[in-house]
Sequence to fold (272 residues):
Amino acid sequence: MRAAVQWCERLVAGWVRPLRIGVAIFRAARRGTPLPDALADAYATAAFREMSRPRAIAFLLDMADSALRAGRPDEALALYRKAAGAGDHRAVRKVVNWPGVREDPAAMEAVYRAAVAAGDVTSLSSLAVVRARRGDGVESRELFQQGIDAGDIYSLLGYGTFLRNGGEPGEWAEAVEKYRRLADENSGALAPLGALLLVAPGGEAEAEVVLRRGAALLENRSRSVLAALLLNRGAVDEAAELIQRVRATGDEHARVFVEGLATEYELPLPPG
Fold:
């Protein structure tokens, strides 16, 4: 009897879900919503209602990739936007690099803000950069600091560049001295100090010494920034080993950063 009930449930779900999507598309069309956006709205509504958040996002990304391969870029973009708005950084990267979006700072800012609001910490540094380019140094500082406090390594590196190139006179030097003092007693200050030193002319050697101190203490941010420094220098084998060690710790923010490095430098990423 239970098997028969389950079969009926699957049968009903098989036509109820498309019916719900069809109704949602019809309603959106009556409101004047463009068809690609209506489709994306309908699929996203159904996905997040019936699936866990990770599965719903994976579904939207798969639908977007399929639409793109089929030559339906407007539909693909609308679906990527839905995933980005749910806080998926892979989708965020897709959208902000899309023709028509990447040339428009206001459009990029809107994408980053929606992603940050949905919990995408990695977008904080990108939003900070956009705000700095648009002349808002105050919010840019706040956003970088939010990212650093949350453990985002992109924010750590971006903040040093911001202070060096766009900060107040003496602000970068003050930050360096602050983290020098903290690093004597707190290993968590080594990565910020190393990131600050990296952006100074001739600062790479001291930055490496600082970051190696942190890496020896198994501090993931130090290991991650050190991996970036080594890859930039061409020391691929040591960097690849660091990347694997960081991935094995389960630190989500560090994992996102080092996997981004691996993708950029076309390094193999074993499962795990």
Remarks:
- The CA atoms of residues 100 and 107 lie 9 Å apart.
